[in-house]
Amino acid sequence: MPFVTPKSQQRAYDVIVVGSGAAGGQTAYTLCMEGARVLMLEAGRRYAPESETAMFQTPDMAPLGGVGTPQKPFGFYDATVDGGWQVPGEPYVRTTEDHGGRFDWWRARMLGGRTNHWGRISLRNGPYDFKPKSRDGLGFDWPITYEDVAPYYDKVELLIGVYGSNEGLENTPSSPPGCLLPPPKPIVSDYLIAKSARGLGVPVIPGHRAVLTRALDHKRNPARIHPGNVRAQKILAADMQSRAPCLWATPCGRGCSIRANYQSTTVHLPPALATGNLDITTDAMVYEVTLGAGGRATGVNFVDRTTGRHEHASARVVVLAASACESARILLNSKSARFPDGLANSSGKVGRYLMDTVGSDVMGQVPRLESLPPLNEDGADGHQYYMPWWLYQEQLAGKLGFARGYHVEFGGGRHMPGPDTGAHLEWLTGGNYGAKFKQDVRRYYGSFVYFSGRGEMIPNENSYCEIDPGGVKDKWGIPVLRFHWQWSEHETGQAAHMQRTFGQIIEAMGGKPYKIETDGAKAIAPGGLIIHEVGGAIMGADPKVSVTNQWCQTWDVPNLFVSDGAVFPSNADKNPTLTIMAVAWRAADQILERMRRKEL
Amino acid sequence: MDRRTTIKWMLAASAAWPAWRTAPGQAVHGTALLRPPAAPGYGTDPDLVTPHKRGEFWPLTLSAAQRRLAAVLSDLIIPADEHSPSASAIGVVDFIDEWVSAPYPAQQRDRPIVLEGFAWLEAEGGRRAGKGFAELDAATQSAICDSICAAERAAPERREAAHFFALYRDLTAAAFYSSPEGRKDLGYIGNVALTSFEGAPPELLKKLNLA
Q: Which end of chain A is more exposed for a tag (fewer CB within 10 A), N or C?
C-alpha cells in the first residue's frame, strides 16, 4: 500500500481523511491501528523528514544567512515547504489590511502540514477551558468536560512523547504517572527569569513540549495506548524503538530527522502505514464533499495537482482534518439543493467564530547575562520553562478588565549566532563600529531575553470566514475564502497587560526592555500571526447554533466528521495542537464504535 | 511556530526596529537606482540539505568598484583583531552583494539605501579630499564614519547617510556572525550532538548568585 495515485486508489475504503497534520495524522493513526481501511488525502507533496531535514546546517550555508523571505517565511531551513501566509496560486481575501482587522492565513502544503515546523508546545486545556461561559458568561462552553478528554490527553502524551512536570497549579492539569518525560535542565537565563518572575508572584514551571528527552517506554506505553490490541501494540512498540531521543542540538522548527520530536510524518504516519491499512495520496487538493441520496456523504472531489485533473474518491465515512479554515472552506464549497449555503451548514455557523491566540512579545537586554563564559545552551530548543496563567481569581473578581488569561513563553541564552546576533544593537552601543563594535557583540551575545504572551481570544460575531462574494478563485478554480476579523477589549486589554508584565519582569532582572507598548490595540499581533486559528465549525450541544456534536460528527450529515481545530468552541491560552489530537482521537474512537454498530 | 523566530519577525513587522527598515529609498543623491534583474528566487521548495553558494539563486549585481568600497567599509566596521579576521576576509562582500541583489521585498527595500549610501560616501570622499572613499587615508575614512555611525547624533543633513550606515553595519554583522569565524569569535560551542544536556553549570550559578 502506502502512497498511491488517484488511479491506484482502491474503491473500498472505510474512511477518507482529508489532511495529514495533527488532526489527520491522529485520526488515521487511531483508525488504522484498530483495523479500519483509510485513504488519506493531502493537498501538498510527499515529504520525508528523515532525508529532507536540514539539521546541523549553519546560516552561512543558506542564501541570505537563512533569514525569512516570502518563499520561506520562518527562514530558509524551516521545515515548511510550499507554505506560508501567502501560497502562490492560492489567494485569499480580507476585508481590510489594517493591523486590528486583518487576518493572515498560514498554510503548509506538504505531508504532515504544519506539524513539521510547529513549536511542539503541548499544554492540556484545564477544566475551566472547556466551560468558559459557565465561568464568566462569555463565549461558548464545550459540550464536553476536561474529564471526557483527559484519557485522550494521556494517550496522546504516551504516544507522541511530551516532556513536562506536574505542579498542581490552578487549571493547569497534571498527567497520570508515566505520561510525561522528564523536563530538560534549565539554562542560566531560565534561573534568572524564574527568580525575577517569582518575586513578582508569577509562577515559573517546566514547559510541556513534544520532544523526547529520553526514549519512550516501548514496553509499557503501547499496552496503555492500545489495551487488548496485541497487533497494534507490537507495531507501536517497534516504531517507538526506532525513534531516537533528543540530541540536544538543532532547532525543532527545522523538523527532526531522528524523529525525536513530534511531527505527524515521523510519529503518526509510520505506524499507521505499518498496519497496511493506510493509503496516502499526496498532491490531492480536496474541494468538495459529495452528497448522496439519503443525505449521506459519499466521498470527496479533489484536484490532482500533478495532472490538474478532477478526481473523486469514495468511502463510508468522510473526516475533514484540513485545518480549521480549509475544512470550513471545503464545507462552504460543498453546495447542493439540500445545502445551498454549504454542507452541514443548516445552522449557518460554518466559517463562524474564528479565533487565533492573542500574541504580544517583548525583548529585553540584561547586564547580568553579559559576557558569560562559553556555554552550550542549545538544550531542547527553548520553552524549557514557562509561566502558566496565574491570576484566575483576580480575573474572576473583575479586577483585570479582561476576561481570559495568557501564559508566557520565554527564552534567552547563547544560541547559534546568525544574521540577527550583531544587528540592531545601536540602542545599546550608541553607534560603535570597528574594534569596539566587535567587543560590543561579544558582550551582548546571549544577554537578551524574550517574552511571548499567548492568550485566549473570546469568539465573536465579527471574526469569521466566508466564500469570497467577489468570486476570487484559486489556480484550480476553487472559490477562495474572505476573512473578517475583530478583536475585543478582552484581547487588547490582555495584550497591554502582557507588555506591562514583561517590562516589570525584565526590570526586576536589572534589564532594559527594548520597547513597551501599552496601547493594547498596537501591542497585539494581527489575527492569524500566531497560527493557532481554530473555530469555523464549532461543536456544541445544540444543532441550531453549532456545526458538530461532541463527537465531531456534523449534525446534518451523520457520516461526515470535522476533527481539526475547526470544532473548538473556545481557544484557551494553551496552544491548540495537543487538544486537536486528543479530540481527534476521541472522534476516531467514536467512528470505530459506530462502524462496529453498523451505524456508519 | 518557533518562538525566537516569531519574536524577531513580529518586532520587524511591527516596525519596532528603526524606521529605515521600512522607509522607501528616496533618490536623494541622484544615483541611478538599478533594480536587480528579476529573478524567481529559490522558490517555495528549495533543496535544504545541500550548502548553497552566493549567486547560485540570483546573479550578484555589484560592480567591481562597489565591491571594493563594500570591502573597505565592512573592514572599518569589523576589522581583524586577536579573536577573528576582518569582515572582507571571510566573504562578507559576497553576502552583501547577494543581499542587495535578491528578488525579495525586504532586500529590494535595502538595495537603494545601500547603493545611495555608497554614492554618498564617494561624494563625501571627493568633497573632503578629492578621492573616492576607498582611496582615502584611514583617518579621513574614520572621520566620515564617525559623522554617520549614530543616527541620533547625526546632523540632519546626514540622517539618511546614518540610516545607510546602520543598515550596512547590520548587514556586515549579519554576514560575519553567521560564519564559522563569527561563531568562534563569540564562543558558540553548540550545534553538536550530545548524549545528555546538563543545563547551567552549578559553579556559574553560584557566581551569578542564582544557585
A: N
Backbone angles phi, psi at B56, to 5 degrees: -70, -35
Tell me, yes or no, if B39 comes closer than 8 A to chain A by beta carbon. no
Distance from B146 to chain A by nearest Cα, in Å?
9
* Extended strands (E) in B83-162: none
pLDDT score recorded for residue A10: 80
| CB atoms B42 and A76 under 8 Å | yes
CA A53 from centroid of its chain's CA atoms: 20
- For residue B142, give the DSSP letter: H
- Are A41 and A284 in contact by the 8 Å Cβ rule? The answer is yes
Cβ of A65 within 8 Å of Cβ of B175? The answer is yes
Q: Which of residues 116-135 of B touch A (CB under 8 A)?
A: none
Judge: A375–B189 Cβ closer than 8 Å, yes or no.
Answer: yes
CB atoms within 10 A of CB A228: 7
Instruction: Measure the CA–CA gap between A588 and A582, rounded to whole angstroms.
Output: 10
Of all helices (H) and strands (E), which one includes residue A302?
strand A297-304
Split at pLDDT 50, 70, 90, the class of A41 is very high
Count contacts between A and B (CB, < 8 Å).
271
What's the pLDDT band for B6 if we cut at 50, 70, 90?
A: very low
Residue A280 bridge partners (DSSP): A3, A40
Q: Is B45 close to A45, i.e. CB distance below 8 A?
A: yes
For A499-531, what is each residue's pLDDT tens digit? 999 999 999 999 999 999 999 999 999 999 999
Q: DSSP 3-state assignment of A90?
A: strand
Nearest by Cα to A195 from B210, B201, B206: B210
Using CA atoms, how far apart are residues B109 and B126, in angstroms rounded to an integer? 27
CA angle A589, A551, A161 (to 5 degrees): 55
Amino acid at B51: P
- The contacts of residue A177 (CB under 8 Å, 6+ apart) are none
Of B7, B104, B187, the CB nearest to A69: B104
CA distance A63 to A40: 35
Per-residue pLDDT of A545-571, as tens digits, reads: 999 999 999 999 999 999 999 999 999
The model's pTM is 0.95
A434–chain B Cβ distance below 8 A for any pair = yes
ipTM of the complex: 0.94
Buried b (16+ CB within 10 A) or exposed e, A238-260: ebbeebebbbbbbbbbbbbbbbb
Which chain B residues have a beta carbon less than 8 Å from that of A82? Answer: 44-45
Sign of CA dihedral B200, B202, B207, B211: positive
